[in-house]
Write a structure and sequence with these properties.
By secondary structure, the protein is an alpha+beta fold. A hairpin with a 4-residue loop joins strand 8 and strand 9. It has one domain. The protein has six helices and nine strands, in the order H-E-E-E-H-E-E-E-H-E-H-E-E-H-H. It is globular and about 40 Å long.
Amino acid sequence: MIDKLPLKLFRDLFDRGLGEMHMLQVAGDRVLLGNLVMDKGALLLRDCGLMKGISPAAVAACWDIGVVGAICDSKGNEWASLTYLGADHCKIPVNLSSTRHRLLKGITSTAGESCIVFKGSVYRGFQLLLDANLLPLVLPFPIHTDENVVGLAVCDFRFASLPIDVVSKVNDLVRTSVENHLKLSIEEFEIDDQEFEKLFSGYLKEHH
């Protein structure tokens, strides 16, 4: 159960789609990976079973040095989903090494978007990270942002000391989820009136 943390933050983000994102959590001597669900008024993390036998020490680096950004509910955007913010927009309480900072700064999409200064839809942000061979997971760890809102940390799961087959399964899980959302997302598809007429003029003529 999500507790000992600002519950209102989790509830607000859950109402905006946090349950669609995969979250990593340590509970005592167990490591959990799954999605938040609402059960009888309480937020619970539904574990997917991939972390069985994994010790908290094996994933500690995700918190210590693995934070790459944050997700938050920023207002007034052209996208409808939660927002992903790169590290330069976040007040990360751990000093990234200069080497790590240069690595993040050097990651750009084919459209020229930089990983470290990215601000946009959480799905596009996660896709950018995945395409750069990073593996984004949400951490139940509040992060202050320059959007004047508090978000939750996003880590690169590849910092965890785990067998390659486990990392590969988590990668497949996250990538499939993100790609499915992007495929179905209307918010990522913008078209002006002229383009609409070109694309659908034949269809409109046939049905009128």
